[in-house]
From TrEMBL:
It is a multi-pass membrane protein. It comes from Steroidobacter flavus. The chain crosses the membrane at residues 41-63, 83-104, 188-207, 271-292. It is found in: Cell membrane. Residues 592-605 have a biased composition (Polar residues). InterPro entries: AAA+_ATPase (IPR003593), ABC1_TM_dom (IPR011527), ABC1_TM_sf (IPR036640), ABC_transporter-like_ATP-bd (IPR003439), ABC_transporter-like_CS (IPR017871), ABC_transporter_sub-D (IPR050835), P-loop_NTPase (IPR027417). Residues 42-319 form the ABC transmembrane type-1 domain. Gene3D superfamilies: ABC transporter type 1, transmembrane domain (1.20.1560.10), P-loop containing nucleotide triphosphate hydrolases (3.40.50.300). This is ABC transporter ATP-binding protein/permease. Residues 365-587 form the ABC transporter domain.
Length: 605
């Protein structure tokens, strides 16, 4: 996950143009083009169709209101009471309309929200895209994008058709109403509102960028806090609290600066909006009252005209609203679209097979002219590697630090796909990759041991026997049983976690195992025990390691050279300095039997 500040911003993302419209369409289309979502279409159609009825209702209510005012002036209590109860019922109808529309909208929103979030998460996890994003570091805070942006996007898009319909109906009904009273006033409202629309558009334009920056700053602040949680122990060791406090305050300052920026901007523009509104409240009065004093209209018509003029103005002003509306949703849309565009790019890359290592499935490990690259293509690693590893064989990858040993394992696991050539790999279900820092899932000790498949018919005694083989004879007892639930990544030392990883191998019995410095945190006798147990399973395995002591457990070594070269050598006769000198623990130069590790069962740890 990366800091939003380090991401290059495309200035085109700040515009409200066809590109934004296409992005909205790209995000909305998958849901709305699926016939399975007919219910949402039905709800949407209902919401739209009820609009004209609602407009007519308001049209009629305005006329009834005028009749009531006339009944008041002509001192007609029966008529006044009749209209009063009618208006009371109309009020209930208005309330019911609001409730029904709110319910329909929420139902539609939740259906789409669930679907869209699941759709994005599915694509995020497919083809290991989450890993690609994390490695390339070009999409900041993907989790925040998924969690925070989907609902506001949906909310905005769903409200859009009703908003447009509301504007159209508001314009037509109020023009009809107002022109019944005075056509001059209709012209005034239209001209006045058009001018105000132009002014407001100019005023709101800069807000798009400000909103954008505010969203990125908030995501950044969250990221800063998350870093502290994720690295709590390291920070505590380094006593880095002061530095962390300053980085968090720094991010918080940015959030506040952006919020204040928007606030001051709204305050300034608020004066303009306020001025436009004030002129409006006075101006129509000067046009309507002379008509009344001249006996040209009845008293109730004043209220009717004012309601219609106000309705027409708000319909026209709602046009102004489209700019702030799009300015508000643009950042969220762009942040979501960027992540979906990355999914699309990933799919396209896979479909094209371009610059991508082809992976075939077979019963051995075979590299045919494979050249490896880092995920973004920044670095060429080992070039044109060809080798075969038959079932039961083992190989260690050695070479200078940073030369690309772990990367080769990542490519074999299908995590890094960039490069050329063809790699034959065993079926995924037959393989297990063991990283240096094991993953401890949430759950009890049994779940840790059975990870990743989570199923096994092994009894508790059998699990205990496995733990003894990996030098953890007391783990169950000291943890409070196999069903004890702890934060295992914290309560187990790294060496213990690495031994749990080996227990997982012995439990799952994969045919192929790939180990990336998986014994770096255990002592040499324990390492020997672990490799001995691995060899006994008969698995084919490939290790990456720095310690010369593990060379002897492998049939051969692939030595990677700086500049992309490589060579295959006999791992038992390799010059230890080609791996990494270990000082006192030099290995004997004569070949050693892999099963003769030189340690006894009691020699663990
Ligand atoms: N996500 C990444 N994006 C771009 N380059 C990367 C990424 N991860 C690693 N690299 C680069 O790829 C090169 C090979 O890294 P790799 O981890 O494979 O080396 P290594 O030989 O295993 O190193 P070490 O022995 O230190 O563990 C390094 O130069 C490293 O900086």
């Amino acid at each position: 996950m990366t800091d939003a500040r380090s991401i290059q911003v495309d200035p085109r993302d700040y515009r409200l143009d066809g590109r934004l419209a296409r992005r909205i369409w790209r995000l909305a289309k998958p849901y709305w083009s699926d016939p399975k979502h007919w219910k949402s279409w039905a709800l949407m159609a209902f919401g739209i169709l009820i609009g004209p009825a609602w407009a007519y209702y308001n049209f009629w209510a305005a006329q009834v209101g005028a009749e009531q005012a006339n009944a008041l002036v002509s001192k007609n209590p029966e008529e006044w009471h009749r209209i009063f109860w009618l208006l009371f019922l109309l009020g209930i109808g208005r309330w019911l309309y609001g409730v029904i529309l709110g319910l329909l909208n929420t139902l539609m929103q939740m259906q789409w929200y669930r679907w869209m979030t699941q759709w994005i998460v599915k694509r995020y996890l497919a083809h290991k895209t989450y890993y690609d994003i994390a490695m390339r570091d070009d999409i900041d805070n993907p989790d925040e994008r998924i969690q925070d942006n989907v609902l506001p996007f949906i909310d905005a898009v769903l409200s859009f058709p009703t908003k447009v319909l509301g504007t159209i109906l508001g314009l037509t009904t109020n023009v009809v109403l107002l022109s019944q009273v005075n056509s001059r006033m209709t012209t005034f409202v239209v001209v006045y509102s058009s001018i105000s629309m132009v002014v407001q558009t100019a005023v709101y334009w800069p807000l798009i960028r400000k909103n954008f920056d505010a969203v990125a700053a908030a995501a950044d602040f969250r990221f800063g806090l998350l870093r502290v949680r994720d690295n709590a122990e390291t920070i505590a060791f380094f006593r880095g609290e002061n530095m962390e406090e300053s980085q968090v305050s720094d991010r918080l300052d940015r959030v506040i600066r952006n919020k204040m920026n928007i606030y001051y901007y709204n305050l300034k523009t608020g004066f303009i909006t306020q001025f436009i509104g004030s002129v409006w409240t006075i101006a129509p009065l000067f046009m309507i009252y002379p008509l009344y004093f001249g006996g040209k209209i009845e008293y109730g018509t004043i209220a009717l005209a004012m309601t219609a003029a106000d309705g027409l103005r708000s319909a026209l002003l709602s046009l102004d609203d489209y700019i702030p509306f799009f300015a508000g949703i643009a950042p969220k849309t762009v942040r979501l679209a960027q992540i979906v565009e990355r999914f699309d790019a990933m799919d396209a890359q896979i479909a094209r097979h371009s610059e991508q290592i082809t992976i075939k499935r077979g019963d051995s490990i075979e590299l045919d002219n494979v050249s490896f690259q880092t995920p973004g293509g920044e670095q060429q690693l080992a070039q044109k590697v060809s080798l075969t590893l038959k079932p039961g064989e083992s190989m260690i990858i050695v070479g200078q630090t940073g030369v690309g040993k772990s990367s080769m394992l990542r490519s074999m696991a299908g995590l890094w796909v960039r490069g050329t050539g063809t790699m034959t790999m065993p079926p995924e279900d037959d393989t297990m990759f063991v990283p240096q820092k094991p993953y401890m899932m949430l759950g009890n000790l049994r779940a840790q041991l059975l990870y990743p498949h989570g199923r096994s018919d092994m009894t508790d005694d059998e699990l205990q026997a496995v733990l003894e083989k990996v030098c953890l004879p007391n783990l169950i007892e000291k943890s409070g049983g196999l069903d004890a639930d702890r934060d295992w990544s914290k309560v187990l030392s790294l060496g213990e976690q690495q031994r749990v990883s080996f227990a997982r191998i012995l439990i799952s019995k994969p045919k192929y195992v790939f180990l990336d410095e998986s014994t770096s945190a255990v002592d040499i006798p324990t390492e020997a025990r672990l490799y001995k147990a691995l060899i006994e399973t008969g698995a084919t395995f490939v290790s990456v390691g720095h310690r010369e002591t593990i060379l002897r457990f492998h049939d051969r070594a692939l030595r990677l050279l700086v500049g992309g070269g490589w060579e295959i050598i006999d791992s038992r006769t390799i010059e230890p300095t080609l791996v990494q000198p270990l000082g006192a623990s030099r290995v004997a130069s004569e070949p050693v039997s892999p099963t003769d590790s030189g340690v006894s069962a009691t020699n663990c740890g």
